[in-house]
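FIELD: query
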Amino acid sequence: MRFRSLLLAAFLTLSTGPARADSGASEPPILRRGNGTEVQSLDPHLVSGVPAMRVLRALYEGLVTLDPESLEPRPAVAESWEISPDGRRYTFRLDPEARWSNGDPVTAEDFRESFLRILHPSLAAPYASQLFVLEGAEAYYREETTDPAEVGVRAPERHTLVLTLESPTPYFLSLLVNAAWYPVHRPSVEATGAWLSRQGDWTRPGRLVSNGAFRLAEWKLNEYLRVVRNPHYRAPQRYHLAEIFFFPIENVFTEERAFADGLLDVTSLVSTPRIRDYLEGEGRQALRVEPDLGVYYLLLNTRVPPLDDPRVRRALSLALDRRAVTRDIRRRGEPPARHFTPEGIGGYRPPDRVREDAEEARALLREAGYGPDRPFPRLTYLFNTSETHRPIAETIQALWKERLGIEIELVNKEWKSYLADRRRRDFAIARAGWLGDYLDPDTFLGLWTSGSTHNFSGWSSEAYDEAMARAARLPAGAERNSWLARAEEELLSALPVIPVFFYNRAYLVRPTVRNWPENLLGYTDYSGIRILP
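FIELD: result
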């Protein structure tokens, strides 16, 4: 009730907007979006979660954007680009009208400095490895060289940016929509701290300078975040919305009540028990259930005994009942995961290797030396607050107790603490999920290379790295897909991660919200959205 009171008070007291989205034609077009959890940061180089990405897409703009229907790359800050015949050099021509929210021009040097910032090891950026496609980027990140001139990013002219890749990368343009590739405004960062600091106050209201269609107006932690139109944005005519509110409502039932009361236009989720009610009742016009390019999985810390033994990891996977999770808990038609990469990305067919067999699981634990004379140690299972994470954890806990006779302790933490523990590898088992950033298998398989800054499992494999490296040097096609499949075979044999199911996305959208984008990536382009009176 406390959150709902705060939510209502925000709408009634702020002079910037009305309490309801549909209360009058003369009101400014304001979108009120449920955002799941509080964002971890507004520094685009330090975030990895979906809630922050939703906000950053309003505040920042990269070189390219995606068409909300086809997901094809389209010009953004870059008006145009040329690709060299060998596919390794991209020359971007920047829009000379691009401006920061303080009126400063956006230049190629802003992008060059920002790319070097996220690659600097002292920043410890979670998405730094996404830039390893640039020539010399990984060597710079690993301090094998300290010369930024050896990284494949140059700004020869004020509005010309040249990026040179290690090898041809078929999905490179789609990579550029991720927040890791957003520029940050160096003068405003350094006005409150060091360029490479993780702790600067430059992301606060009144200090944050961004280059997107919106700028930060308010941020009341655990209550709401408000963005308003950037008066210096290069193409204001593309946007109908005047403001966007983001509400960090972790409790899905509270979020649904706010939607029912007209206090939200879009939710981040919809509660599992209500999906059928919406489908069969008047709420069916508001319900959206869409395929999502994502996988729910268990992350195993392979540096913690007994999870350093692949036989134990395989036993835990074999003892699951994935269909029970999707049928009894999620209830939205999501397929159990028999591999890590979702089907149907660029002609790639993932190997179907994940099986379930409780008897084989028990045999593997005996082979690993566990039994009456050597009990299996009690392990922790880390998960963040969510409507379904707890029942999924409890189901897995019960399955492993019943089928393997092992005990696990459930540890629930709020989002920021969960992310911090995962980054420090302060866990044995953790629930995890990954939503693809672009339409290529690499967005999933690239997570588990030895150099990936997303590889919190502690696992590495020369065979895996070699297969991924070979795939990276090939154009899209059968040969590349063959090497990707070899890599995934290696991953599913070692099982540092245990796939559970592939996501569907279920949420609510008010009928007065028009042109809400629906696509496989869940990519929100705010430019086309309109609010009807």
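FIELD: remark
The CA atoms of residues 83 and 90 lie 5 Å apart.
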